[in-house]
Amino acid sequence: MELLSKIDLQRTPRHVAIIMDGNGRWAQKQGHMRLYGHNFGVESVRETLKAAKELKIDFLTLYAFSTENWNRPKEEVDGLMDLLVRSISGEIEELMSSNVRLMSIGNIEGLPQSCIDELHDAIDRTKDNTGIHLVLALNYSARWEITNAVQQIAQKVKDQSINPEEITDDLIGHYLTTSEIPDPELLIRTSGEHRVSNFLLWQIAYTEFHFTEVLWPDFKREDLFKAVLDYQSRERRFGMVSEQLT
Ligand code: IPE
Ligand code: IPE
Ligand code: MG
């Protein structure tokens, strides 16, 4: 039986975030350079986006490049930046025809200018699309994002435009790069690693985690369905007890 038919489409997560990990190991296992794996990872992005649409998911956030990833060998970083520009320009028509709205989170201004330009152009062109939001986390670091929010709020307090008592968790959320994005209900990490690697620390307070051994270039439609089925088998208690939930 197809996995899709087991999923309750009325209870799919509104926002799924994915730590797309394992490209390098996937390539090396086949005797190729790491960049070969990153290139194949783009096909998994396409498939996952399509599958997310089938599930009526509203936001799909993909961790594509962390601030810590700048520490990789220059050749790999350059290759990833180049791949980013090529993928966005290569996919833009498809994003338009499938009504996808592209967004980004992270320290975008810290990317090479060619990436900034391509990204801004694609975000602008897709801004009136009403289908799924595809959110790319680029030069993203949750600690950077929180530190940045704290600095901005501290400045407002200093300028006396807000009082310390007015600092609520909603207000803090407003200063994060995810201010227009709901918190994810489901976070997936591929490649068998069980860590968060500085991703969405504030936003995952009550997120369900799904870990899979599958390496990102092997991640396909059915893998997303498995993750959502796993999510639907969980009881989200938000600090309460089971009996209170019915
Ligand atoms: C994830 O795959 C992609 C990025 C971090 C850009 P990796 O490149 O981390 O692959 P592994 O973890 O080394 O196999
Ligand atoms: C996390 O993967 C970042 C992205 C997927 C973009 P990494 O491969 O960089 O994470 P670590 O180094 O294994 O924690
Ligand atoms: Mg990795």
Write the layout of secondary structure elements.
Blueprint lengths: L14 E5 L3 H7 L4 H21 L4 E8 L7 H24 L3 E5 L7 H13 L7 E8 L1 H17 L10 H6 L11 E4 L18 E4 L9 H12 L14
Parallel strand pairs: 1-2, 1-5, 2-4, 3-4, 5-6
Helix pairs in contact: 1-2, 2-3, 2-7, 3-4
* Main sheet: strand order: 3-4-2-1-5-6
The radius of gyration is 19 Å
What is the level-2 CATH architecture name?
3-Layer(aba) Sandwich
Low-confidence stretches: none
Q: Strand tally, please?
A: 6
- Into which percent range does the helicity of residues fall? 40-55%
Counting DSSP H or I runs of 4 or more residues, the number of helices is 7
CATH domain class: Alpha Beta
Write down the secondary-structure element order: EHHEHEHEHHEEH
Between the first and last Cα atoms, what is the distance in angstroms? 30 Å
> What are the distinct ligands in this entry?
3-methylbut-3-enyl trihydrogen diphosphate, magnesium ion
In total, the number of domains comes to 1
User: What is the CATH topology assignment?
Assistant: Undecaprenyl pyrophosphate synthetase
